[in-house]
Amino acid sequence: PQTPTTTTATTPAPPPPAGPAAPFPMLRQVCKSLPGFGLPALAAAVLRSQTRLATSAATTTGFHTCTQASQPQPQTRQNKPRPGTDTKTDSEGSGREALLRPKPEPEDVLRDRFGRFHNYLRISLTERCNLRCTYCMPEEGVDLTPEARLLSAGEIQRIIRVFVDSGVNRIRLTGGEPLLRRDLTDIVSAASELRPMGLREIAMTTNGITLGRKVPGLKEAGLDAVNVSLDTLDPFKFQLLTRRKGMEKVLESVQTALDYEMKVKVNAVIIRGVNDDDVDGFATMAESSPLEVRFIEYMPFDGNRWDHSKLVPYAELVDRIREKYPTFSRVKHEDAPNAVSRLWHVDGWQGRIGFISSMTDHFCGTCNRVRITADGNLKVCLFGNEEVSLRDAIRQGATDEDLRQLIHGALQNKKPRHAGMFDIAKDTMRPMTTIGG
To answer: What pLDDT, in 10s, does the model give residues 231-281?
Structure first.
């Protein structure tokens, strides 16, 4: 007898059961023809770090696959997980449920699973810089992201608005050197319009080279505070550390900002054998001027040749200053909530000194900050390699609610603390100029 022929049914598959609405409907439409596409794959792809996607041996058919099909291939960042460290948190599992979990309450969008509320946003405006500080980037510079893949002014303003609407009350504009953006004043002005929504402070971190002449316009636009990076008071060492001249311009900028009644902080990264003998001079600056000098422990970043022997611990710096100022004392009551800087001063001083001890005495338990890189990636920890692209989400049609859900999902994967300094030093991370200082 003849063997019957098996035929394949052509009737369409029944629709899937009703569930949560898929984020990024435009993205789903664009990617629906990709093999293996589905909402779980999309959720997993969005929440994995770009670096893990770039180095993965498997083909990912989610979010970044879509953008790579329609845009030039971005340069791969070879960030490697720390030895012996799982890149997933305990509650993350596969990460596939991150965008499928129930929508967070509005007041919890910026709260992580350890109860930390992140009301401080640092957003980088550019990767470019007019200095080449040794602790920030390699001498030869870094490969910059193509302009088309950086955030536009409109995208920056939208991200700031979404964060402020979710509870951010303080933003800081960083770089690279933010003063190199021609539309900086417009960005500050647009952010200032969000004050009725709860935004209290707009600050900027700068190397100060061109700040002096731009202070009046930035002050009028709504800039409240500046942090000026200055690692030495010696012109020769300034050129050694920055590979450029210009210390006098920086000092003039500090004075101009004070004249315009801006809140001013001077940031100095102290490196043993290089500028640790400048500590007394900076203390004198705090004694005579109404500003805060902040000593920052030397941190490891890609290309800065970090060495533990060059690190000058916070406690050692305190002892050095006390040799000259015996009444130098801690002023805990003046610390801001979630402060990273421990404040000290001497009675009669106009200013004060702060210490940022990221390496020897971390402050992860009270961390309230998140970062946006100039190419639009959300980093929930400075020393973490996990990044989520808000730029890609925006350009694929994400709504503000989609962005909030992405932000919340990323924060649920934030770890309780960063790794120890020796583990961080073994890792391969972006140079600081591409993260945002």
So the answer is: 999 999 999 889 889 999 999 999 999 999 999 999 999 999 999 999 999
DSSP 28-89: HHHHTTSTT--HHHHHHHHHS-HHHHHH-SSPP-SHHHHHHHHSPPPPPP--BPPTT--SS-
Q: How many residues in the chain?
A: 437
pLDDT band at 310 (very low <50, low <70, confident <90, very high): confident
Angle, alpha carbons 242-243-246 (nearest 5°): 65
177 secondary structure, DSSP code: -
E-strand stretches of 176-316? 201-206, 225-229, 263-270, 292-297
Residue 325 tokens read as: 């100022």
- Point out the least confidently predicted range of 237-241, 285-289, 384-388: 384-388
Q: Let me know: does 376 contact 394? Beta carbons within 8 Å.
A: yes
Instruction: Judge whether 295 and 354 are in contact, CB under 8 Å.
Output: yes
User: How far apart are alpha carbons 409 and 401 in whole angstroms?
Assistant: 12
Structural Rg of the chain based on CA atoms: 24
CB 211 within 8 A of CB 226: yes
Pull the structure tokens for residue 209: 């080279």
CA 369 – CA 391 distance, rounded (Å)? 19
Strand-by-strand arrangement of the 369-372 sheet: 329-330, 342-345, 352-356, 292-297, 263-270, 225-229, 201-206, 170-174, 120-124, 369-372, 377-379, 388-389
Distances in Å between the alpha carbon of 216 and those of 32, 57, 221, 256, 260?
51, 52, 9, 9, 7
